[in-house]
Amino acid sequence: MKSLKRIFELYDEILSLPHKQEVARELRDEDDLFLLLIYSDMLGIPNPAFYYTLELYPYIIEKFHDWHLRMGMEKSPLEGIRCC
Amino acid sequence: MSGIWLAIFGGIIFVIGYRFYSKYLAEKIFQLDPNYVTPANRYNDGVDFVPTNKFVLWGHHFTSVAGAAPILGPAIAVYWGWLPAILWVVLGTIFAAGVHDFGTIVLSVRNKGQSVGTLANKLIGQRAKILFLFIILILVLMVNAVFAWVIANLFISNPASVLSVFIQIPLAIWIGYRVYKRQGSMLIPSLVALAVMYLAAIVASYVPALQINLVEYFGGEGATTLFGMNATSMAFFVWIIILMVYVYIASTLPVWKLLQPRDYINSHQLVVGLSILYLGLLFTSPEVTAPTTNPGADTSWFPLLFITIACGAISGFHGLVSSGTTSKQLNKETDARFVGYLGAVGEGALALISIIAVVTFFPTLSDFTATYSSFQDASATGLGNFVSGAAQLATGIGIPASVASTIVSVIVVSFAATTLDSSVRLMRYIISELGEEYKIRPLTKMHVATTVAVVSSAALTLIPEGPKGFGSGGYLLWPLFGTSNQLLAGISLLLIAIWLKRQGRNYLPAVIPMVFLMFMTLWAMADQVIFEWSGMGDADANMLLFVFGAIILVFALWIILTAISVLGKKDDQNISNE
Fold it and tell me: Quick check: A31 contacting B, CB < 8 Å?
């Protein structure tokens, strides 16, 4: 009985693998867009909440390096954040 | 002789191949290291690079590569008798497909999880990458045309299957929505969807009103319809147009909406199909009525056998999956043997049961030879014979023959439809990439690229004329599909060989299957292009097949020449083996 349950779990995992990946990719895309909006000043678009974005610093700093690599920037585009 | 012996023979060779040859490859050739930090662990980002359990990864790899192609090729190739087909499937699987699938995973893992296309650029040069894109373009174009023909053909010959196939679409969208938006489990809803589909198949098998039979609708076989077309031609035309409209919409939707949920249902269908066929074989123990070999064949088995069975013996498409997704999810390097080699074996097992279903279907040898009277007849009727043979095996576990043939048709059409969706999508990406490469901006737009993909595929499906008229000759493209798939496998094997050589290792396990494949492709294409399609031989000229055949011939030649020049060099620069 236990092994049958394990087989079903394994089968479920096989089916969920591409799906989980797709959900994670969509969420990452949303996060990427959010980070881009935070740095909208860099593109010349005024950010009405620029003052408060500083509060997000501890949350985004860990993801920042991967983000700028994904955005096609090999080095950190910001003087203030020297991740690489 | 009982068909079970063929399955036992194939099974034993597969076990020996896995037990000994893949072990040799893992230890002596690829020198897998259990402590090597794979890209999944090194670049773990929770999205593309995710360390995954090897059983789960094998399941995912196998369901991604298995489809309708390993069923159709063997069902045609039994024309030359069961022995050549079985030998090519089992030997091809252990010596060519196993090395190819296993090798592309290892090559990609040792190169930061990069795909075969990127590695072609890195190992051979920019021209190789462009050529690689063109080969995939031809391959997906052939896939689109052949699989559209497969679906239209099965809809016409088995109208009871239409309802279930169309019911699958809203069910898949429902599952996609439910799982994506509400984060529910997908196992139960996809099993419910499968039950609904099979219920519809059972009901439609008994209720003619639920069978969507376009030939009857247009006045029955022999009736003349618009533009002087006969009813079957018209039915082909209408089905292909419907399919192309569907595939346009399906391939432009996000994958989670339709393609992925269909894949969940198809995974169940793969399990159901393989279980029904192998159990049915066990219970019915049918006699093999096909001949061992066919000395009176009108077309020689050499070299056509090796391109008629592509998927099931070796398939270049697997390299795209191995290096595109699987290599990024490999937890330990040593898992590559289990995932890659056994993935190829799984596909071989599917091809094996396809051969067994056809060679045991006919009551007597003369029935077999009457149906498989020429290579052209074998190509045109192979798929239908598989459906009937598989249905006969299914009766062994108590499923009535009419229901079984509907369900088998539904399974084959579902595989073909998902392949069609993915390959039109892939074609769209390649057209966009070529558009960027050659600065043709309109081609980079999604709808322009999709329109080009769909219209060219529809045209290619409709142009070859078969015995049933307009649109029924899609099977004529099968050798082109086989050769373009072998070309892709040839490039991947060449890349593996180059990498092995630069590590100072024995590269013969990759070079021998590559040379074999390219030699067969060259020979087959030269023979077909010069004597069959150019009009110089006995047959009438066929410009469409001539042009595509000539392109494939040139590409195969290019791969051989590149192999000679790259593998012949003494001072190679070092290639990554971190």
Answer: no
Residue A80 lies in a domain: no
Contact with chain A for residue B515, Cβ under 8 A: no
Q: Respond yes or no on whether the N-terminal peptide bond of residue B303 is cis (omega within 30° of 0).
A: yes
Within a domain: A83:
no
- Whether residue A79 lies inside any domain: the answer is no
Nearest C-alpha in B relative to A15: B264
**B175, closest residue in chain A (CA to CA):** A19
What is the helix (H) or strand (E) element at residue B350, kind and residue range? helix B342-359
CATH number at residue B431: 1.20.1730
User: pLDDT tens for residues B36-72?
Assistant: 999 999 998 888 899 999 998 998 899 888 888 999 9
Look at chain B and report how many structural domains it folds into.
1
- Whether chain B has a CB inside 8 Å of the CB on A41: the answer is no
Burial class (CB in 10 A: 0-12, 13-18, 19+), B375: buried
Within a domain: B573: no
Q: Report how far residue B269's alpha carbon sits from residue B407's, in angstroms, rounded to the nearest whole number.
A: 10
ipTM of the complex: 0.78
Domain that includes residue B393, residue range: 3-568
* Per-residue pLDDT tens digits for B111-170: 999 999 889 988 888 888 888 889 899 999 999 999 999 999 999 999 999 999 999 999
State pTM to two decimals. Answer: 0.90
Number of domains in chain A: 1
Tell me whether residues B50 and A21 touch, CB distance under 8 A.
yes
Facing residue for A10 by CB, picked from B46, B56, B63: B56
Using an 8 Å Cβ cutoff, are B289 and B506 in contact? no
Domain of residue A21, residue span: 2-70
